[in-house]
Write a structure and sequence with these properties.
mainly alpha; 11 helices
Length: about 230
């Protein structure tokens, strides 16, 4: 029971409105550097086959890459999802970016939860680098995406429900993350169920604390900073 509460608390804490009330220098563009996967200066992207398309500022090429990635959604790494979310946000597809961000956040937490941390290695080893990357991406991109997302709680609620529904089972982790050692597969289902339950707490908060969340945004200045941002349909 304690383990379940801890897992749910960790997921909920990563999504609490504090992340939506953090002011940033430029709300229209995410400034993030997660070595070796992403650097907003450029941008420089190193997440596999989609690097060039994700980095492109040519709208047609970028959208084609995003659509190609969505066709292989269950095979994407959380790093690919996070970078996709960041680039969607930067290029104006912010509503879609929220969905990618929350999907990436879930997959990243799932990775960290099911990773055999005793065998993740050291700096430079894939398990070590990915374990720390999932937290870095969430911390750096969260204030931007949540700053935008919490401005429309009804839409955010729909996205969180979708992410919860789509992650009822665990993807093929060893294939997606070669060279990484995970906990015994027999434990995955129960662990993921506990992680998934954390989203129910977030959904409850979004349903019961709408007025408080809106008030916090106004008081912190987040509403004024993010309310002018628009979103293009994908």
């Amino acid at each position: 029971m304690k383990a379940r509460l801890l897992i749910s608390a960790l997921l909920l804490a990563s999504m609490l409105p504090q992340a939506a009330n953090a002011l940033v220098a430029d709300p229209s563009r995410i400034d993030a550097y997660v070595t070796p996967y992403y650097n907003s200066a450029g941008p420089v992207i190193k997440v596999g086959a989609y690097n060039a398309g994700l980095a492109s500022n040519d709208d047609k090429r970028f959208v084609a890459t995003i659509r190609s990635m969505k066709k292989r959604w269950t095979n994407l790494t959380f790093c690919q999802m996070y970078v996709g979310s960041i680039r969607l946000y930067d290029l104006g597809y912010r509503q879609e970016s929220v969905y990618w961000f929350y999907s990436a956040q879930y997959r990243g937490r799932q990775f960290a939860l099911l990773l055999d941390q005793s065998k993740m290695g050291r700096i430079g080893d894939p398990g070590f680098e990915l374990f720390h990357a999932q937290d870095a991406f969430m911390t750096l991109a969260g204030p931007y995406v949540n700053g935008y997302a919490f401005g429309d709680l009804d839409s955010l609620t729909k996205i969180v429900r979708r992410v919860q529904r789509e992650n009822g089972s665990v993807v093929d982790l060893p294939t997606i993350y070669p060279g990484v050692t995970f906990a015994p597969k027999a434990t995955w289902r129960a662990q993921n169920a506990q992680l998934n339950a954390g989203l129910s707490q977030l959904l409850s908060m979004l349903a019961t604390q709408k007025d408080q969340l809106k008030q916090q945004r106004v008081q912190s200045g987040t509403e004024a900073q993010f309310s002018h941002l628009s979103s293009k349909p994908l």
